[in-house]
Design goal:
The protein has helices at residues 4-20, 27-37, 44-55, 64-84, 96-100, 102-121, 126-148, 157-182, 187-214, 217-220, 226-229, 235-242, 246-256, 260-272, 275-293, 301-317; strands spanning 89-90, 93-94. Strands 1-2 form a two-stranded antiparallel sheet. It is 74% helix and 1% strand. Strand 1 and strand 2 form a beta hairpin. The protein is globular. The protein has two domains: 1-124, Farnesyl Diphosphate Synthase, CATH 1.10.600; 125-323, Farnesyl Diphosphate Synthase, CATH 1.10.600. The chain is built from 16 helices and two strands. The chain is an all-alpha fold and 323 residues long.
Length: 323
């Protein structure tokens, strides 16, 4: 079994370092960054980095710096996301931009990006630095890609997957990939952990897209239908469009552009065309493929724990008929 105490100790140290290492001579900068960092969170990406470290046969402490880096990177994206989406709340508290304003939040995100790169440079490992730089570019491009396609129904599956690769999957991918590269794991193991992280992130975003339609605010902390009302064509609408004709396609576009009557019709169509069951069936298939990637690394408790994270995603959110 995994040494749970060791894992929790590593996560506790990372949580403390996220704040203690985020220092600036400008008090406002610290206040902006610390506001979100102190709200905590699941530190899922840090957990993935630590488990990947263990899966590569190394002590968890050897992955703590990389876990810290991916958490800073993730927090930077949240600061920027809250400005882009004009989010009022984050983790049940006031979002940073509602407290400090848009400009300070953007600069705080920029500062955390800089911290992540400053920290990875101290590892003196050019390949990990290169991978992180490429990942950051992909993350930014994903947000820009989504912005370019806002209010458009003409979003095919390939474009949707490209968007969520940047928005979500890439950061999950580097969380499991960087430790394997840094610790000189065999190429087969690096590839397996990279693919698992990518698929895990894709599944995570697909589920998040579905929850936007299927869960109430009370259940999930999300505002139901916020993606639709914001003009975002996400996974449920992609699936609906693939199983309907041009009449429905036009209706989806009207809904994305704010037509309230069209929005209600689309909500009804999602149920009448069995869209959610079709979408969950795809997620289950992708989950099986993601789990299979890990069969190419040694069978250890850390591999089991990585698989369990994915299994818990499905167990927590998928309807009983899809499991």
């Amino acid at each position: 079994m995994i040494e749970i105490n060791a894992l929790n100790d590593s996560l506790s140290r990372i949580s403390n370092r996220l704040i203690s290492h985020c220092q600036s001579s400008i008090p406002l900068m610290e206040s902006v960054c610390h506001h979100l960092l102190k709200l905590g969170g699941k530190h899922l990406r840090a957990r993935l980095a630590l488990l990947a470290t263990g899966a590569c046969g190394h002590a968890l402490e050897q992955g703590e710096s990389l876990a810290l880096i991916v958490e800073w990177l993730h927090t930077a994206t949240l600061l920027h996301d809250d400005v882009i989406d004009q989010t009022d709340q984050r983790r049940s508290e006031q979002a940073t931009q509602t407290v400090f304003g848009n400009t300070a939040s953007v600069l705080g995100g920029d500062y955390l990006y800089a911290l992540a790169f400053e920290h990875i440079a101290t590892l003196n490992h050019p390949q990990t630095l290169s991978v992180l730089a490429q990942a950051t570019r992909t993350i930014v491009e994903g947000e820009m890609h989504q912005l370019a396609h806002r209010y458009q129904r003409h979003l095919n599956r390939a474009t949707y997957l490209k968007i969520i690769e940047g928005k979500t999957a890439k950061l999950f991918e580097v969380s499991t990939q960087l430790p394997a590269i840094y610790l000189s794991a065999p190429s087969e193991h690096i590839q397996a952990l990279t693919r698992f992280g990518h698929d895990l992130g894709t599944i995570y975003q697909m589920i998040d897209d579905l929850l936007d339609y299927q869960c109430t605010s009370k259940d999930s902390g999300k505002t139901q239908y916020s993606d639709l009302h914001s003009g975002l064509c996400t996974f449920p609408l992609i699936v609906l469009a693939e199983h309907t004709d041009s009449t429905m396609h036009d209706l989806i576009e009207q809904a994305l552009n704010g037509d309230s009557t069209a929005q209600e019709s689309v909500k009804t169509a999602l149920h009448s065309h069995n869209t959610f069951n079709l979408a969950w069936a795809e997620i289950i298939t992708l989950t099986q493929a993601a789990q299979a990637h890990l069969d190419h690394i040694p069978n250890t408790p850390y591999r089991t724990a990585l698989k369990q994270i994915l299994a818990e995603f499905i167990e927590t959110h998928a309807p009983a008929s899809s499991k």
